[in-house]
Amino acid sequence: MLGSLADIDLRMLRVFCAIVDAGGFTAAQARLNTSLSRLSVVVRDLEERLGYSLCRRGSSGFQLTDQGQELFEAAQLLFADIERFRQHANRLGPITREQLQIGSVDSLISLPYAPLSLALGHLRRRLPQVRPNLHLMRPDELEQAVLDERLHLAIGAFHHQLSGLHYQHLFEEEQNLYCANGHPLFPRTDETLTLEEICAADYVSRGYMAEHQRPHDLHFNQSVSAYAMEAIATLIFSGTYLGYLPSHYATAWVAKGQLRALLPERLAYRSHFHCITRQGQEPKVALATFLECLALAGRQLGEAHLQPLAAQGK
């Protein structure tokens, strides 16, 4: 049974909530970038601290006990109260400028119609007193940070939709499978390549994507994991791995003859980017204004995929 609530208790509660949001230990493993054994230890320690069971795992899948469900709901209220306390405490200090915590995936700067930079400029002109803080994270980390209220909103390509988050479609990004000059497949023409040969090559997977989320259901014999586009590109440039990269990100290297796309007409795909915010959060002037700025930036960039976001912030 809990006596005083320590930092370690809060950390264990956040891990437990992440497991529940993911729908189980296995799905939470990649999102939290940790092992199944470590997750099991954290939940076991939390159960021992509380004195009751929180969940069951077995052939029927992951299931919360009644106490586990109630604890999960209580933890959501606790984390919301902590964030409200933090905001209130900050307002009592000498710094009165409102902060806006924005998250994004990396390597969007070379995408011509990505609206983030233009939207930040609009926000600066409309609300110069607002201080935007920009955080670059993996998609799974962005979702968790918005749920935990560490971020007000985030932009990324999310491969599932979590309860508790609002997903607003923004734009699409083309992805291609690349190899570097020096890889055995680089000099081969697309006409002579087969899927069997491609899948036999070593592959760089995105560590935050589950196996079943691989493009075109490709199954590579050997793979390593990376968690950022630059890390994937670095491994591709070793000349020993294939990997997917955003086409705009790889364009300069392709033009220099350092990278080539493999079977682009067959293996390319498009990632759908969304802006996510937490459902039920109290509307703030800075957040509502920035969503309006994001919509305006999308219209100015002339991208038909961008949808108005202003209504969400009202």
TrEMBL record:
- Which keywords, in A-to-Z order, does the entry hold? DNA-binding, Transcription, Transcription regulation
Source organism per UniProt:
Pseudomonas protegens
Q: What is this protein's name?
A: LysR family transcriptional regulator
Task: Note whether Transcription occurs among the keywords.
Answer: yes
Q: Which InterPro entries match?
A: LysR_HTH_N, LysR_subst-bd, WH-like_DNA-bd_sf, WH_DNA-bd_sf
Any Pfam family matching the protein: LysR_substrate
Q: Please state which protein family the record places this protein in.
A: Belongs to the LysR transcriptional regulatory family.
Q: Which residues form the HTH lysR-type domain?
A: 8-65
PANTHER family in UniProt: HTH-TYPE TRANSCRIPTIONAL ACTIVATOR BAUR, HTH-TYPE TRANSCRIPTIONAL REGULATOR
